[in-house]
Design brief:
Layout lengths: L1 E2 L2 E2 L17 H15 L9 H15 L6 E4 L2 H9 L7 E5 L4 H8 L5 E5 L13 E5 L11 H11 L2 E5 L16 E5 L11 E5 L44 H15 L3 H18 L9 E4 L3 H6 L5 E3 L2 E5 L6 H9 L3
Parallel strand pairs: 4-5, 4-6, 6-7, 7-8
Antiparallel strand pairs: 1-2, 3-9, 8-9, 10-12, 11-12
Helix pairs in contact: 1-6, 2-6, 3-4, 7-9
GO molecular function, one term: transaminase activity
Keywords: Aminotransferase, Antibiotic biosynthesis, Transferase
Organism: Amycolatopsis eburnea
């Protein structure tokens, strides 16, 4: 099918983007071409550097930040560990109750840190008395969206640092988050990239509060001059927190994030939430203005209706992205007949 200016081989009823996004044809073709080069012995390590540069710049554009403030990695939790491991003993972190554990586990794994969970809706008013806030912009389990304006105001008033996980938001929800200390995002969901690519925005004044827990040659000021011997010589910008790239993932991400340059995210948001809210309305439920919907439904009946979805927190989770249509809404409704 064709949607938002490109072609997708997405099957009817595919509503599992919160788990795995479907790549546009040019993204899949770029990865396939790279696999063929690898298969035939034509690959050279240095050829992947431009792809990393392109994906880094693409993520930066989505956030409206300087590419030099963006680190690349393989997963959200691995990048968040750079933040969590740097926190001194006695640090108090507040998080949303039931948030995805890739957000909370890195902090909980630091023995000197206390993590307190509160309901998402109460998070802004519970910031006072804490040093760090860590939360997903959009909740993985049910699509609830944190009140970013209220959170920013509360954090600034309390002098608390903020880490945002934008994994379930970036790619469909226009974001104004450069004010946060750190923003992480994985690419294989709404950004339609292969699994194995993620990015971390580090605000300039948060650099010294971030630790390169997986310091490696690629995090050097000049990676190809950092492959042997001491002393430690990390980059002076956010590249100091880079992980050696997952090559094929970066190839796909470079193409995918450049595709998003030509996409109006406000239109994507309207499309996605329009479908999600139409489903809720037909089920007699109030609209929620988010692309992810959690339903009290029988997973087997949903699957029998031709829907690809996930089960999260005991509920069927569906997500609507730019390649979904009204036909997908009707398929879900058939599971309730």
């Amino acid at each position: 099918m064709r949607a938002f200016g490109t072609d997708f081989a997405v099957p009817p009823g595919y509503l599992n983007t919160p788990s795995v996004g479907i790549p546009p044809a040019p993204v899949a073709e770029a990865v396939a071409e790279s696999v063929e080069r690898w298969r035939t012995g034509a690959t050279r390590p240095g050829e992947f550097d431009p792809y990393v540069t392109r994906s880094r710049a693409g993520f930066a554009r989505l956030l409206g930040v300087d590419p030099g403030r963006v680190a690349i990695g393989a997963s959200a939790s691995q990048l968040i560990a750079n933040v969590a491991a740097a926190l001194p003993a006695g640090t108090r972190v507040v998080a949303a109750e039931g948030d995805f554990t890739s957000v909370t586990f890195p902090f909980a794994a630091n023995p000197g840190v206390t993590v307190t969970e509160v309901p998402l809706e109460l998070l802004p008013e519970r910031v006072e008395g804490h040093d760090v806030v860590a939360v997903s912009v959009v909740q993985s389990a049910d699509g609830r969206i944190v009140d970013l304006a209220a959170l920013r105001g509360a954090a600034e008033a309390a002098g608390a640092a903020v880490l945002l996980d934008a994994t379930q938001a970036v790619g469909w929800l226009p974001l104004d988050v450069a004010w946060a200390d750190w923003v992480v995002g994985a690419g294989y969901k709404w950004l339609l990239s292969p699994r194995g690519c993620a990015w971390l925005y580090v605000r300039p004044d948060a650099h010294e509060r971030t630790r390169a827990v997986a310091a490696n040659w690629y995090a050097g000021e000049d990676p190809w001059a950092s492959v042997y011997g001491l002393p430690l010589r990390l980059a002076g910008d956010a590249r100091a927190f880079d992980l050696s790239p997952v090559w094929l993932a970066q190839v796909g991400a470079a193409a995918a994030l450049e595709y998003f340059d030509g996409v109006n995210l406000a239109e994507v948001r309207a499309h996605n939430t329009g479908l999600a809210d139409a489903l809720l309305e037909k089920l007699g439920l109030p609209p929620r203005g988010t692309a992810i919907v959690a339903l009290d439904a029988d997973p087997q009946r949903v699957a029998a209706a031709g829907i690809v979805s996930s089960v999260r927190g005991g509920r069927v989770r569906v997500g609507f992205h730019l390649y979904n249509t009204v036909d997908d809404v009707e398929r879900v409704l058939r599971a309730f007949e």
